């Protein structure tokens, strides 16, 4: 596969779920044989994961992956980052600048591991990226602006970001250093690197209850701006984004950043999903709950359910894989909350009834996911986020395990009959089957779900699974 073809494939299929590279800037240095080691590794990582996103070029990705990993490991062994177990950089006079391209390269390799290797290997690789992120100080790049917002939103001014950029930004060409130091596009690339790492960490909770490794309280970085504005490369950014805490917890200041661009919205919803996973773990730690614990549970539960419902109300754009995945993720959060409430032992009838009341919203969410899958173009499955199969598997497991819901007369589109549930399972399995062409995780989940559904059928379901064409009859 030629370098030009790799780059085109990257921006067509990888960039939609990891939009952290400025396209025009990349092409300006991509053909430079004297690019810095960090950029060389990033270029190699971009072409490596691009090969994984195409069935025709999957085989050559293993060689490219090994080469890219050697580059990054060599750079990590350099003295500027110290020994692997160190958590602080050396003093400024003893270290070179941390290149955000290195972090980007490690993140792309982690996604390659999700697509082509194993979940365990992906977590190991992701930890390399997270460590460099903490060492770089990028998570606090807008801390001065954040502090100004706490008193009065209007007091927040851009100069604090410029100050940070002058400290952290590095240049390939000394003559252009003054220009690059005040370049907002470079600042936005770093922000997007931060949030790409955060998104990977939060979505990892979908796999085997993996705990998060990055604390949201430590992120003092503005949310990413819209993709159109980022790629336009105008002299000055039009919008000034807010912070995660504002968008997540519904502070008054959040009104100034609504509606969120697709990437920022995905970050917020992924953080909400991770909170739902934490909520589930807390509920399962010591059942049955005491009365005070149950009270705290339902306060958290109702807040999360309301936030998930609001996240599902965003405008759907079929052409944007990020928006499609985000909406499915929001519906998956609703399903998770329902499963958590119904899997918990309750001491009172009121609490049991409250748990049962969660089911209508959960079945409605499952129905909406199936509708999205039905209407999504086939090419969209090659551009979906690598963790897309996990969200689909969660919905599939819910429908397979739960009894059909009989809605009230006002119930509209809920999955309410056995036949509709079977049709929904077929659609979800077909989505996994299409994704499995470029995603090993999808193939593994498909195999597991087919076995689970087949077992459910043999245990007394009226349905029968046809292994021949992968459908229910």
Task: Give the topology, please.
Elements: H1 3-14, H2 23-29, H3 37-52, H4 61-76, H5 100-116, H6 119-136, H7 143-151, H8 159-168, H9 177-181, H10 184-203, H11 227-232, H12 244-249, H13 262-284, H14 291-311, H15 321-343, H16 349-356, H17 359-375, H18 388-401, H19 418-435, H20 440-458, E1 465-466, E2 471-472
Helix pairs in contact: 1-3, 3-4, 3-5, 4-5, 5-6, 5-10, 6-10, 10-13, 13-14, 13-15, 14-15, 15-17, 15-18, 17-19, 18-19, 18-20, 19-20
Describe the structure.
With 473 residues, the chain is mostly helical. The chain has a domain at 1-156 and 184-258. It is 60% helix and 1% strand. Strands 1-2 form a two-stranded antiparallel sheet. Strand 1 and strand 2 (471-472) form a beta hairpin. Residues 92-96, 152-182, 251-257, 406-412 and 461-473 have low confidence and may be disordered.
Short précis:
This protein is mainly alpha-helical. Helix content is 60%, strand content 1%.
On the 0 to 100 scale, the average pLDDT is: 81
Q: What spatial order of strands do you see in the largest sheet?
A: 1-2
H and E order: HHHHHHHHHHHHHHHHHHHHEE
Which spans of ≥5 residues are poorly predicted at pLDDT below 50? 92-96, 152-182, 251-257, 406-412, 461-473
Strand portion:
under 5%
**Count of DSSP E strands?**
2
Name the structural class. Answer: mainly alpha
Radius of gyration: 23 Å
The biggest beta sheet is recorded as: 2 strands, antiparallel
Helix content: 55-70%
Intertermini distance:
43 Å
Count of DSSP helices?
A: 20
Instruction: Give the overall form.
Output: globular
Domain Xylanolytic transcriptional activator regulatory: 9-241
Subcellular location: Nucleus
Keywords: DNA-binding, Metal-binding, Nucleus, Transcription, Transcription regulation
Main location: nucleus
């Amino acid at each position: 596969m030629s370098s030009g073809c790799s780059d085109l494939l990257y921006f067509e299929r990888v960039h939609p779920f990891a939009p952290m590279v400025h396209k025009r800037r990349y092409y300006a240095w991509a053909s430079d044989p004297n690019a810095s080691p960090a950029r060389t590794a990033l270029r190699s990582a971009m072409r490596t994961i691009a090969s994984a996103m195409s069935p025709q070029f999957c085989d050559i990705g293993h060689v490219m992956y090994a080469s890219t990993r050697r580059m990054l490991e060599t750079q990590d062994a350099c003295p500027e980052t110290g020994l692997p177990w160190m958590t602080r950089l050396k003093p400024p006079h003893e270290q070179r600048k941390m290149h955000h391209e290195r972090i980007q390269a490690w993140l792309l390799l982690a996604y390659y591991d999700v697509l082509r290797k194993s979940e365990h290997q992906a977590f190991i690789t992701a930890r390399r990226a997270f460590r460099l992120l903490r060492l770089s100080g990028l998570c606090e790049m807008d801390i001065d602006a954040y502090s100004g917002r706490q008193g009065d939103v209007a007091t927040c001014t851009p100069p604090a970001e410029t100050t940070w950029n002058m400290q952290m930004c590095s240049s390939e060409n000394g003559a252009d250093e003054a220009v690059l130091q005040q370049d907002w596009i470079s600042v936005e690339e770093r922000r997007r690197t931060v949030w790409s790492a955060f998104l990977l960490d939060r979505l990892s909770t979908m796999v085997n209850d993996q705990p998060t490794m990055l604390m949201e309280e430590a992120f003092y970085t503005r949310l990413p701006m819209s993709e159109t504005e980022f790629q336009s490369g105008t002299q000055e950014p039009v919008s000034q984004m807010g912070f995660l805490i504002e968008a997540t917890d519904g502070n008054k200041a959040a009104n100034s950043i609504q509606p969120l661009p697709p990437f920022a919205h995905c970050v917020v919803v992924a953080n909400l999903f991770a909170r739902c996973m934490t909520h589930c773990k807390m509920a399962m730690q010591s059942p049955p709950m005491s009365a005070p614990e149950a009270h705290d549970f339902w306060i958290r539960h109702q807040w999360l359910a309301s936030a998930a419902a609001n996240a599902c109300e965003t405008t759907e754009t079929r052409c944007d894989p990020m928006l499609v995945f985000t909406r499915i993720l929001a519906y998956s959060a609703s399903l998770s909350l329902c499963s958590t409430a119904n899997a918990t032992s309750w001491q009172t009838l009121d609490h049991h009834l409250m748990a049962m009341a969660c089911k209508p919203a959960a079945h409605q969410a499952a129905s909406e996911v199936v509708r999205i899958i039905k209407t999504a173009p086939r090419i969209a499955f090659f551009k979906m986020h690598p963790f897309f199969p996990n969200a689909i598997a969660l919905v599939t497991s819910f429908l397979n395990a739960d009894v059909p819901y009989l809605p009230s007369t006002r119930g509209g589109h809920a999955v309410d009959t056995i036949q509709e549930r079977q049709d929904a399972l077929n659609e979800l399995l077909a989505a996994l089957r299409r994704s499995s062409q470029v995603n090993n995780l999808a193939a593994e989940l498909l195999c597991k779900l087919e076995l689970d559904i087949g077992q459910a059928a043999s245990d007394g379901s009226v349905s029968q699974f046809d292994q021949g064409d992968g459908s229910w009859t």
